[in-house]
Amino acid sequence: MRSFLFVPGDDSRKLAKALDCGADALILDLEDSVAADNKSKARRTCLDFLKAAVPLENRPALYVRINALDSGLSDSDLDDVMTAGADGIVLPKAQSGADVNLLDARIAVREALHDLPDGRTRILPIATETAASIFGLGSYREAGSRLAGLTWGGEDLAADIGAAANKDADGSWTEPFQMARNLCLFGAVSAGVPPIDTVYTDFRDVDGLREEARSAARDGFTGKLAIHPAQVAVINSPCASRLVSSSVVDAETRCDS
């Protein structure tokens, strides 16, 4: 899969529109894009959406980003969304392959409760969001068969280490974040799963996204996260010389809020 689009889990209208945006996978977000006092509503909204969308033909893969394992919210997230049979769970702030194994066990219980095939639900960790997690990137080889890929993040990592910025003036990653990116790539390939590049946060900068997508594809990443529907067309075509900005505008017109 090439493109993974985050969609706020508490916005039913955006979720419905995202189905037609061309992303290979949607990530229904219960974490960063949902305010603390809106978590329960987001779970219900995601559950309703999944019940309607999972049976559809020719749909994107449907993942749910739960809250972190140490947040006190992840079990409630799983209790709700696992009833509808999402294709996978995105695990934020994963520290190592041991976190994937822990989530695997929790998912297995819920698969049995809801008569879902054992092992059906995949896990995609965001594996570089804390300083400690960098030292666990070689451990995903032991994470088991649910592991769907490995991706990384620079925003939470910047906050964790106290970085004033994670990119230079020219838009390139600074050295700590370039290292995190590279180690995620090596960790994924070592584990035998797809490496997925992180988000490009300036969704209006089409040229910057195109260049970052090209660089990711050049270096070995097979997919990229997106935060806006207009980014999907660029990510799906990393050889972006044949893309024109009108295709991005068309996507934004169809799918934007």
Task: List the main descriptive attributes of the protein structure presented here.
257 residues, TIM Barrel, 39% helix
Describe this structure in words.
It is a single chain. The protein has one domain: Phosphoenolpyruvate-binding domains (TIM Barrel). It has 9 helices and 8 strands. α7 links the parallel β7 and β8. It starts with a strand and ends with a helix. The chain has about 260 residues and is of the alpha/beta class.
Quick synopsis:
This protein is an alpha/beta fold. The protein has helices at 12-18, 39-53, 74-81, 97-113, 155-161, 175-191, 206-219, 232-236, 245-255, and strands at 3-8, 25-29, 61-65, 88-91, 122-125, 150-151, 195-197, 223-226.
